């Protein structure tokens, strides 16, 4: 029944110095992923078995690359989310920003290391380094691009990039999701967007923004500067900051063989909420990718009308599970809503992984293809 909902998604588918200086900092932060000084995230344990690549090709499910990000106090939430979306075929990268302590980051690695299943399949990585991130500024965009670059460096044989926050939670098990995605074009991008981001009724798109988190170690509020004119060399699109993007499009944004991603990266370095506009504008202004979009982010999310965030709770349960969404957010840690989803939708026992077709592989020959299907 969940799978039939998935198919409904596809109906109808076919000042200047300041600016310059800040842009240079952003490029510097992104280039770290290609420098010798940058460390590829280490496996949670040095005793983990070598990564076995899942079978790919016609008839095989795709490989999903998940990035789970969090901040201070989010370690347990991230582990619970990981267990709810885990599958041996997929790749996972967990990262805490500088709002967290060294102890929290070490503890996150310990929690991952203590799970025998994760050691067996070796497809979960924890980023040991941290940096400041402000969701309103370009540091959040830099973090997202960096995460995708790391996942490409670890293993580029994945099909879709899915960023999640520690407050996200799945509304579908991975077996069903992978099965549904098996029949989709691998270049398809799930990105909710419209032209002219006046949909937010914000003035930030017309103002210069400086994000100090690009050059400070600690999380810092962003700064606004003088107003500027709207661009006329490209059309701006905006929408949900939550996306599911194809590997080919992420490579296009990171490697930048066309000038559009670089040009727009420099522009959105100094725009507020770039995660709500950057990918949307790049994809809609790129001839190669503008026809690969499905305007749906597959998320059940509340967009607050005030700065105070709104949290999902049990009062929304019926509406949440009845829709076509694959993920819901934000949900507080240990909220009863999580237990309801675990019991009724995912059939997940407390502190366990969601059962799936791969579950029988635990304790037997992990070389069998069944584990990776």
TrEMBL record:
The keyword Transmembrane applies. Keywords: Glycoprotein, Glycosyltransferase, Membrane, Transferase, Transmembrane, Transmembrane helix. One of its GO terms (cellular component) is membrane. It holds the Pfam family Branch. GO terms for molecular function: glucuronosyltransferase activity. The chain crosses the membrane at residues 12-30. The keyword Oxidoreductase does not apply. Signal peptide: none annotated. It is a single-pass type II membrane protein. It is found in: Membrane. It comes from the Eukaryota. PANTHER family: GLYCOSYLTRANSFERASE, OS01G0121800 PROTEIN. This is Uncharacterized protein. It comes from Gossypium tomentosum. The lineage of its organism: Eukaryota, Viridiplantae, Streptophyta, Embryophyta, Tracheophyta.
């Amino acid at each position: 029944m969940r799978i039939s909902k998935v198919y409904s998604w596809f109906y109808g588918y076919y000042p200047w110095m300041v600016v310059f200086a800040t842009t240079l900092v952003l490029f510097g932060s992104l280039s770290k992923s290609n420098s010798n000084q940058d460390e590829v995230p280490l496996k949670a344990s040095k005793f983990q078995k070598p990564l076995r690549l899942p079978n790919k090709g016609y008839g095989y499910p795709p490989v999903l690359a998940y990035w789970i990000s969090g901040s201070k106090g989010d370690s347990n939430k991230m582990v619970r989310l990981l267990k709810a979306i885990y599958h041996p075929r997929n790749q996972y990268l967990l990262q805490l920003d500088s709002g967290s302590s060294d102890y929290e980051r070490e503890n996150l690695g310990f929690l991952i290391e203590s799970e025998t299943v994760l050691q067996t399949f070796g497809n979960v990585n924890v980023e040991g380094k941290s940096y400041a991130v402000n969701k309103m500024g370009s540091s959040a965009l830099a973090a997202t691009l960096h995460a995708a670059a790391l996942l490409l460096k670890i293993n580029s044989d994945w099909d879709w990039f899915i960023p999640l926050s520690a407050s996200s939670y799945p509304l579908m098990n991975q077996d069903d999701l992978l099965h549904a995605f098996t029949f989709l074009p691998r270049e398809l991008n799930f990105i909710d967007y419209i032209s002219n981001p006046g949909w937010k009724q914000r003035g930030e798109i017309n103002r210069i923004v400086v994000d100090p988190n690009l050059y400070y170690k600690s999380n810092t509020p962003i700064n606004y500067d003088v107003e500027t004119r709207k661009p006329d060399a490209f059309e701006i699109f905006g929408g949900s900051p939550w996306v599911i993007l194809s590997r080919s499009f992420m490579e296009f944004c990171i490697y930048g063989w066309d000038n559009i991603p670089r040009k727009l990266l420099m522009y959105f370095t100094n725009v507020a909420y770039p995660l709500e506009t950057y990918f949307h504008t790049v994809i809609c202004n790129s001839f190669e990718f503008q026809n690969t979009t499905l305007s749906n982010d597959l998320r059940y999310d509340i967009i607050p009308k005030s700065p105070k965030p709104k949290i999902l709770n049990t009062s929304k349960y019926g509406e949440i599970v009845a829709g076509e969404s694959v993920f819901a957010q934000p949900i507080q840690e240990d909220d009863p809503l999580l237990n309801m989803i675990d019991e009724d939708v995912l059939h997940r026992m407390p502190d366990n992984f969601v059962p799936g077709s791969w579950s029988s592989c635990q304790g037997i020959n992990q070389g069998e293809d069944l584990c990776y299907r």
